[in-house]
Amino acid sequence: MNTIDIPAHVKASVLLETMPWLRMYSGQRIVIKYGGHAMTSPALQESFAEDIRFLHQWGVHPIVVHGGGPQINAMVKRLDLDAPFTQGLRVTTPEVMDVVRMVLTGSVQRELVSLINRESIWAVGISGEDGGLLQARKTMAEVDGRKVDIGQVGEISAVDPSPIEDLLAAGRIPIISTVALNADHTGGVLNVNADTAAAAVAAAVGAKSLIVLTDVDSLYRDWPECKQPIERIGLTDARAMLPSLDAGMRPKLGACIDAVAAGVRQATIIDGRQPHSMMLEIFTNKGVGTMVVTDDRAQGDSDE
Ligand SMILES: Nc1ncnc2c1ncn2[C@@H]1O[C@H](COP(=O)(O)OP(=O)(O)O)[C@@H](O)[C@H]1O
Ligand SMILES: CC(=O)N[C@@H](CCC(=O)OP(=O)(O)O)C(=O)O
């Protein structure tokens, strides 16, 4: 870790600023969605792992739900397969499903676990398939008002949080890959959007907060001009914005809305390209990114 030569009183005030936040989050669950585009460099991955260890060390319970879209794309290309997106969802043939499973659970999850465990042994990887954690029903995409079959793609229908509870009770950090069991009990698996899965997990474990790391510094009201970043947005306003968003951001804001509507106190979209953006969001008064909250908290409230 870099130590920068800053005056002692500044260091002390930074440490003191973390106190109310540590009090607020100590003993609480925070679900962190780590998107494929936020895993762009080894240095960023290292700072992500440091933040996760820090949270755990201070008695917060981080639960990581990871994506891996770009990593799946790279493997699909290497294998000379075709897996385009329709309405933000990957068209998933049985062959592509094998690749999704191999990349998410066999590669991205393994790397995250080993990175976090480099200085500790707290992280344990599980797949949505394990212990019935994520169950999904096959879904269709809607194009021009028509339902289109996009293969083995699912929408979360149930979350059984007990595998996560077991790990938390044992002092572990769960690292979850978003491959889901098909709820039709045929033993098959479905590919689910990782943002949506993270929201369902956050709701099921009673998380205090959902943090979604991505590759943009904020949600913008005027995308792609980017002159109007949104710091905080209430559910009604967020729902009204949803249909106008591009495919990448739509599931993210949708996930934040679902999580907050299900009782998660706040859901924040932050820039995973900034080192330690997670720490800044959780432990500083200003925070970073775009926070989705219930309407009554949209103007800010006294405990933050
Ligand atoms: N209103 C908006 N504000 C910010 N970003 C937006 C907006 N609409 C669409 N986007 C796009 O959504 C992208 C994030 O989604 P995505 O690429 O799927 O990320 P990830 O891989 O992290 O899940 C941003 O990089 C940006 O290009
Ligand atoms: C159905 C569907 O589209 N699933 C995604 C799952 C991974 C994901 O969501 O990864 P990011 O968070 O990095 O985008 C996919 O196959 O790419």
Automatic annotation (TrEMBL):
Gene3D superfamilies found in the cross-reference section: Acetylglutamate kinase-like
Keywords: Amino-acid biosynthesis, Arginine biosynthesis, ATP-binding, Cytoplasm, Kinase, Nucleotide-binding, Transferase
Location (main, coarse): cytoplasm
Span of domain Aspartate/glutamate/uridylate kinase: 28-271
InterPro entries hit by this protein: AceGlu_kinase-like_sf, AcgluKinase_fam, ArgB, Asp/Glu/Uridylate_kinase, Glu/AcGlu_kinase, NAGK-C
GO cellular component: cytoplasm
Keyword Membrane carried by entry: no
Pathway(s) annotated for this protein in UniProt: Amino-acid biosynthesis; L-arginine biosynthesis; N(2)-acetyl-L-ornithine from L-glutamate: step 2/4
Residues noted as binding substrate in the record, renumbered to the chain: G68, G69, R90, N191
A GO MF term: ATP binding
EC category name: transferase
Recorded catalytic activity of this chain's protein: N-acetyl-L-glutamate + ATP = N-acetyl-L-glutamyl 5-phosphate + ADP
Subcellular localization: Cytoplasm
GO BP, sorted A to Z: L-arginine biosynthetic process via ornithine
Annotated site (Transition state stabilizer): K33, K252
E.C. designation(s): 2.7.2.8
Functional description taken from the UniProt entry: Catalyzes the ATP-dependent phosphorylation of N-acetyl-L-glutamate.
Family named by the database record: Belongs to the acetylglutamate kinase family. ArgB subfamily.
Name of protein: Acetylglutamate kinase
Species in which this protein is naturally found: Nanchangia anserum
Gene that produces this protein: argB
